[in-house]
Amino acid sequence: IQMTQSPSSLSASLGDRVTITCRASQGMGNFLAWYQQRPGKVPKFLIHAASTLQSGVPSRFSGSGSGTDFTLTISSLQPEDVATYYCQRYNSAPLTFGGGTKVEIK
Amino acid sequence: QVQLVESGGGVVQPGTSLRLSCAASGFTFSNYGMHWVRQAPGKGLDWVAVISSDGSNKFYVDSVKGRFTISRDNSKNTLYLQMSSLRVDDTAVYFCTKDGSSGWYGGSDNWGQGTLVTVSS
Predict the structure, then answer these.
(1) CA atoms within 13 A of residue A96's CA, in its CB half-sphere
(2) Separation in Å, CA B24 to CA A71, B11, B38, B56, B72
C-alpha cells in the first residue's frame, strides 16, 4: 500500500497558509498520523486519527480527511515550522510512511 | 517523562548480524506496542517492525522479513531488534518508538534518539 505525499517540497512566506496532501492507494478510514522532523532532530508526533492534535501541538496545525485523501494544514507559517513532514498509515501492517514534504521559508 | 534509549548500533560487514536494544522508562512498558523505524542518511522515514504489548503479535516490512526479529522483555522494559544477513541498504539510523495503544493503532507518540547502523565492506 503506497502513501503518496505532495508536494515533495514547498517554499512559503511567513504567515502563509500551507497545505500538504497525503494520498493512500487503498482506503484506510482515519488511521493516519502526521509527524514533523526539524533539521537534525528526531521526528515529533503531531496528529493522529487524521485530525486529533497531540497535546502541546500549536493550534495552527490541523489535519483532515478520511479514506484515501488526507491533508495537513499550517494556518500561518512560523519560522519554527521549517521541517520535513511525514504522513503514516497505521490501520494495518506495513505501517507505511509517505515520502515526506520539506517546508522552507521563502 | 517517557524515555527511550537505543543502543547496539555500529559498523558491520554485509552478511553479519547485530542486535539493537531500546531501554524504556517513564511509562508502563508492558501496556504499549513498540516499533522500530529507520532512516537512511538523507532519506525519509521507513517503518521496520511492530510488536504488541504482550509480544503476541509481530509485523514486519517486506524488505526485512526473514532477516530481522523484533522482541521485547517486559520484565526488563526493553525492546530488541535482532538483525541478520545485513545488507548495505540496511544502513540507517534506527529509532525505537512507543505506540499510543497496546498494538499499532495509536501512532508513534514517543521516539528515541536513534542508533546508527552502518553496513559496509
Answers:
(1) 16
(2) 32, 24, 18, 19, 11
**Residue B62, phi then psi, degrees to nearest 5:** -55, -35
**B32 touching A (Cβ < 8 Å):** no
User: How long is chain B?
Assistant: 121
Q: Nearest CA to CA, how far is A35 from chain B (Å)?
A: 9
- Chain A nearest CA to B104, separation (Å): 7
What pLDDT, in 10s, does the model give residues B20-62?
999 999 999 999 999 999 999 999 999 999 999 999 999 999 9
Contact B82, B73 (CB under 8 A): no
Q: Are B100 and B106 in contact (CB under 8 A)?
A: yes
